[in-house]
Amino acid sequence: MKALVLAGGAGTRLRPITYTSAKQLVPVANKPILFYGLEQIRDAGVTDVGIIVGDTHEEIEAAVGDGSALGIRATYIKQDAPLGLAHAVLTAAEFLGDDDFVMFLGDNLIEGGITGVVEAFERDRPAAQLLLKRVPDPQRFGIAVLNEDGSISRLVEKPADPPSDLALVGVYLFTSAILDAARRIEPSWRGELEITDAIQQLIDDGASVRASEVEGWWLDTGKKDELLDANRIVLGAIKRRIDGTCDETSTVTGEVIIEAGAELHGTTVRGPVVIGAGSKLVDAYVGPFTSVGPGCLLESCEIEFSVLLAGCTVRDIGRLEGSLLGREVTLERTVRRPAVHRVMLGDHAQVEIAKG
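Given the sequence above, the corresponding structure tokens read:
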């Protein structure tokens, strides 16, 4: 079996972060989202991995390399334009050949991995097997309708009146039959070749399309609040490890990871928290569910339930909460007069200023 990982999306819902960074490389608990999926694929025994890339291919390739550090063998497949998931499958046809494969959306996080569904697929070998999750708002997703025997009878994309609450998670297992089905569908109203249409073609052909349900959490990290929630959940499973240095005036409580080279001076940290290598915290408070990337400087500030990417400086700004800061962001209080807010913000930035 092979794997096909989709890492070519533009990440428009996470702008402005994704203007300068691939959305699949935005970190959760200081590890790129993409790496969680690649590790779960490896843990399921699949090591031959094709990665669909787009305009951010150089950054993806620099991060993953040949895949050996993650225990996989990576092959990069360029998709010229984001023309749908079925188009991505056809773009990878030469890599896939006649092999079975698992297709994994590169910005998904799934509790417990995919080993069980891979084993079930290899045992039963339906034409397709889809991972589903019950959701409270099915109108936002592609939805599956099941037969009594657990097979899928039809798929509906973002229905106004959902016939079920079983959403497509973004993990699919296929035989090579999906290639023929994808070649026989037409573009949707969005101008894309939809994977749901290709799977429906398999169903209409009489092929077996099975379902497996995710029992734990499934996280779509496409928006800021979703990413912060993913960070919260993943941090909830970390174990305490302190490789950096803490002076005698600092206090570290709970499950906290402090990477080598990080320094704490007069700082309080309450886990779960991850502090990246080379970061320096001075007279600061870092509260639960916060990830501080490598090389950051935090001074005379309070931060909680936030994600800071590499190289951020936060100084003398009071309390920061529910925030996502991109690479090399500087957020500090100035003593210059007049006492006004001075900002430089990119497209799609969001700033909330508390009433004083």
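The first helix runs from residue 33 to 43. Try to locate this feature in the token string yourself.
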